[in-house]
Predict the structure.
Amino acid sequence: MADEELFFGADDEPVKDEADNSSVEDAAASDKASAEGGEQESKEPEETKEEAKENKEEEKADDSSSELEARYMSLYAEYDNYRRRTQKEKDNLYADAIATVTKEFLTLIDNLDRAVDGAKKSDETSLDKVIQGMELVGRQAQDTLTKIGVEEIPAERGTKFDPNLHDAMMHVDDEELGEQEIAMVFAKGYKYKDRVIRHAQVQVAN
């Protein structure tokens, strides 16, 4: 009590200095602020973890996107190479087919040229020889087609009309023939295996 300062009022009663109360309040406020600061500091690590998690997910998404893009580019390159190789093989096959067919017809063309030259030099007495030469060229043409796998479509008179093989150019009444039978052939038809190259152009009866 010796150090405590006293003040005397009108009634001469001692009054304690209020400074002690304010220092206590300041200390309490300081403690409260420290506590709030501690709560904020304790929340910061949680926010940092969330951000790190989001960043990690974004990195994974970027990696997946890059991997998909790389796979797409690789597949596209493989397809482009395959397309080019297939087109080249197709062109080569077509060229080989043309060369093979042309080679088979060269002898036929040579004989046809000889027959034409012979016909120009012929007279009435050698007409039969010209006809025989043309017939020979025709047989060679048929043999050449058979050799490369091309067949003539049957279309003789009396053959049943087949729209898959024949092309009806006109109709005619013919008592000697049955219904939908071929009466005349205007142009022969040809096929390769199951593929029709040209339909036979015919006249159909009844």
